[in-house]
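Design job #97: recover the sequence.
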């Protein structure tokens, strides 16, 4: 009985090995070709060719193939180098040049990183039709490779509204570069990223200056759909968030009639920096009505010297405009 069980185990192992061998020998799924080149070849040309004409040709090819190229591009995004190859290249980076050459002799270079970047560049060219690749792009966005993070954000931005939730999901990241990249992607999506506005406004108060700047650019890119929530933030917000919201409003919605009341309210803020931003914002929208003049005149007595100077400059500009 014991001998029989052993034979059955051996047969099972052999059968498994034969099946595995057949699977490994099975030809891989043929990829799409266009004008004699594979999707990977066109992607590499688009990403790395030094010739502008060649890159334009590759861009046209990717757009022509469109959704048909997505399966090949997703496979490129998922490509991995072998563990041993990655370890060898990682070790070589810590060795002197001479030893590096000896160690890497006969070792193939890492292919996966280039494939990932080339695929993402190609997906960006395809645009909204690349939405099936969004889950893989989302992983790359929050990965460890900074270059892949930014390429992924561009591809996600070009993919359009379908990528908004993925980009918003990256905003709580502790990695400032990931947050900046996600905001850049939302800026590319534009007005269709309306649902992201509350999350982006929160980033106006981030401790990282570069995150704040990217948030401002994202709101500018979203444009008019962001105006109502920005106006509410100026009316009810505090500190840096309130000031940056005012800046965004001036950029995307320079309406004197709509914005002047909010900026006048902001001029009563406890923080001098916010009062200063209020005066700058009133000046930017050319506010010159009676309420504005009175508020600016009162600001000449402000406790902060910068606010007083800004009020003086604003009143001077109003007077100069009247003389024209």
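Job complete. Output follows.
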């Amino acid at each position: 009985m014991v001998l029989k069980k052993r034979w059955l185990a051996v047969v099972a192992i052999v059968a498994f090995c034969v099946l595995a061998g057949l699977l490994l020998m099975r030809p891989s799924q043929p990829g799409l070709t266009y004008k004699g080149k594979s999707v990977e070849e066109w992607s590499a040309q688009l990403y790395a060719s030094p010739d502008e004409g060649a890159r334009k040709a590759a861009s046209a090819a990717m757009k022509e193939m469109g959704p048909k190229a997505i399966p090949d591009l997703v496979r490129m995004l998922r490509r991995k180098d072998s563990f041993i190859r990655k370890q060898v290249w990682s070790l070589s980076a810590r060795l002197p040049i001479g030893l590096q050459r000896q160690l890497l002799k006969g070792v193939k270079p890492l292919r996966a990183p280039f494939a990932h970047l080339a695929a993402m560049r190609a997906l960006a060219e395809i645009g909204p039709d690349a939405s099936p690749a969004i889950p893989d792009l989302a992983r790359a966005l929050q990965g460890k490779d900074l270059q892949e993070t930014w390429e992924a954000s561009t591809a996600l931005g070009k993919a359009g509204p379908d990528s908004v939730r993925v980009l918003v999901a990256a905003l709580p990241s502790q990695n400032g570069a990931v947050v900046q990249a996600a905001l850049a992607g939302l800026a590319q999506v534009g007005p269709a990223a309306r649902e992201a506005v509350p999350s982006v406004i929160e980033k106006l108060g981030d401790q990282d200056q570069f995150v704040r700047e990217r948030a401002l650019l994202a709101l500018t890119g979203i444009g008019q759909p962001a105006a109502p929530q920005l106006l509410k933030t100026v009316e009810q917000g505090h500190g840096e968030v309130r000031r940056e919201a005012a800046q965004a409003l001036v950029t995307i919605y320079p309406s004197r009639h709509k914005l002047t009341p909010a900026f006048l309210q902001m001029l009563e803020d406890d923080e001098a920096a916010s009062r200063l931003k209020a005066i700058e914002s009133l000046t930017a929208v050319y506010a010159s009505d009676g309420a504005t003049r009175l508020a600016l005149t009162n600001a000449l007595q402000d406790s902060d010297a910068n606010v007083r100077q800004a009020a003086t400059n604003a009143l001077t500009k109003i007077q100069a405009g009247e003389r024209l």
